[in-house]
Structures are given as structure tokens and as C-alpha cells.
Amino acid sequence: MKLAEALILRSDYQKRVEHLKNRLFKNVRVQEGDQPDEDPAVMKAELTGLLEQLKLLIQNINKTNIHTKFDGNQTLADALVIRDVVGQERKIYSDLIEPATMRHDRYSRSEIKYVTTISVKETQKYIDELSKRYREMDVKIQELNWKTDLLE
């Protein structure tokens, strides 16, 4: 199995766990004399088995990420951390642009005037650079995911 396939499977398992959890919550309590729509014991057993499969899959994904070379100095795990931090930085600066570009109309000279304390143009340019770095890194990561066999 390729790493990319394992990542898709992990996402599927996570969705199934969430779905089972919701079904279990709906059937854990019923009115006296009624029966639940589904047997909570059966769902609990299914959930336990699914969580075990998810645990093993995540362990194998992590092992693969740690042992897969991304470039000369970094592993795939390192590249994922860097990509995520670049994405987080990009989001922060994108969120920062919004209040910096907000206009406040003044109706008289006695109203408080607000000024922007950052260069919107330079900040936007930096956001564009971060976006490009993120995209380029993500493309390389995705490519590597489809070329790499999952370690067990």
C-alpha cells in the first residue's frame, strides 16, 4: 500500500469512528420500556476494533514519515511540520490583513481617526510568498506520498 492510500484510509477510518460515536450516543439512553434502535454492545465492539485498526495505521504512517527522505537533510515528517507552520503563518497574516484594510468613515473631525500600522501591500506580498512556498512544498509531499510504500 502506498502512503497516500494509507492517508486516505486514515481519513475514512476517522470519519467512520465519528459516525459510530454519534450512533452510539443516540442509542445509549432510551425511554424505559423501549429498545434502542441499535445494540450499543455491538457498536462498542465495532468501535473498539476500528480504533485498533486506526491506531496501527497511524503508527505505520508515522513510521513511514520518519524514515522517508524528503530531501538531502529532511525527512517527510520534517517537511510536514514545515509545511504546516508555513500554512499557519500564512493564515495569521491573511487574518491580519482584514482589520488593516477595514475602512472607518468619520462623520466629523471630532471622531477618532484610525490608521493602519502595517504596510498592507508588503504584507500581502509576503502572504503570496508564503502561499507559493506552501503550494510547492505540498505538491512535493503529495508526489512523495504516491511514490512511497507504507512501512509496517
TrEMBL record:
Gene3D superfamilies from the UniProt entry: 6.10.320.10
Keywords, ordered alphabetically: Coiled coil
InterPro entries named in the record: DIP1984-like
Coiled coil regions in record: 3-64
UniProt keyword Coiled coil, yes or no: yes
Protein name (database record): DIP1984 family protein
